[in-house]
Amino acid sequence: MPPTRPSSAEIPDALDSDLGWTLGVVFRSYVRTANALVSHLPGGPRGYQVLAAAAQGLPGGQGALAQRLGVDKTVMTYLLDDLEKAGLVERRPDPADRRNKRVVATERGRATWTDTQTRLEHAEDHVLAPLDPADRSVFRELLRKLAAQANSLDPVHDTCRLVEELASDVPAKPRRSPRG
Amino acid sequence: MPPTRPSSAEIPDALDSDLGWTLGVVFRSYVRTANALVSHLPGGPRGYQVLAAAAQGLPGGQGALAQRLGVDKTVMTYLLDDLEKAGLVERRPDPADRRNKRVVATERGRATWTDTQTRLEHAEDHVLAPLDPADRSVFRELLRKLAAQANSLDPVHDTCRLVEELASDVPAKPRRSPRG
DNA sequence: ACAGATCGTATGTAAAACAGATGAATTGTC
DNA sequence: GACAATTCATCTGTTTTACATACGATCTGT
């Protein structure tokens, strides 16, 4: 998914008023900036999310953490390996359940987290720069409304229903053929 | 990049006012819907873009097409393989330059394109549903402004400059270690 | 006509994600 | 209290995807 990660200049013509396109342009612009701002810590953006979760001291082992972040548990394993190797977090066996390994941020990890947070705020300002302050808050508010609604109907079967609702000639699932 | 394709529920807590987060939620919501709506044609979203380009009859061979869409030329090769196998486009040798292979949409390809276009318009309405008509046009306009500016400073060195500008402790490039 | 460049394709390689198996540790039941 | 079943984190193997490179075919220059 990301399904789409087109790099730079693409379809510059008549799709200027297309919502999906403009949304993608703005989002990718932010993602590019944000990625650059967190590229110094292992795991990139996901490493930051893990660090943030650890610094906020939220409960649960690394499995729960993986589920919350939407990554596979095996990914979380070597994500934490790199993060721990960098001295930002620690795996600490849970005294209550020694199978669990609590993920706690080190002193340096907490400092790095707050530092990166301020960076990301700058990234937001960078993206919103072309708007004057009044328009910025309007945009934030509208976006917040959209996000709230999008979250409520996020479940997968909903888009499936929408597909069947609009589909005309989709009998089966034509998976992509292997390259050979 | 996608760099980030987190699936569903993630960091539900204090980041509600975070621009990057809400932007990502809305964008992923649209992407999910749009992907579902174009999943019936080979290559998914990129297959649709190729089909759209072919149906609009834009000039140039498949190499130029690949560059415009931001995908590798080798990807374009088997992308067109699948698309041609499905009878949506044809590779036609350019009479002026027989190295080039013009990509033209078949009759069925054009029909599929227009059909998919209307579907994607429904997807837009679906995302913008929580807003009343006035707010929708406001949102579209603000987003258009942001996209225009983002496009102008998209070049990579710009974000690099921004990184160095804000970086505090980034001496070298700590590439991620291989898993083993 | 011949050297060099360009287009599309084929091939190999590296990185990333997912599924399944493994070992350690807990819970339940008898 | 012992034993089966479950859960957690990790390891291993497979698959997919993108990229880099090499190749044959074709064009353009001299």
TrEMBL record, chains A, B:
A Pfam match: MarR_2
Positions of the HTH marR-type domain: 16-148
Signal peptide extent: none
TM region(s), chain numbering: none
InterPro entries given in the database record: HTH_MarR-typ, MarR/SlyA-like, WH-like_DNA-bd_sf, WH_DNA-bd_sf
Full protein name: HTH marR-type domain-containing protein
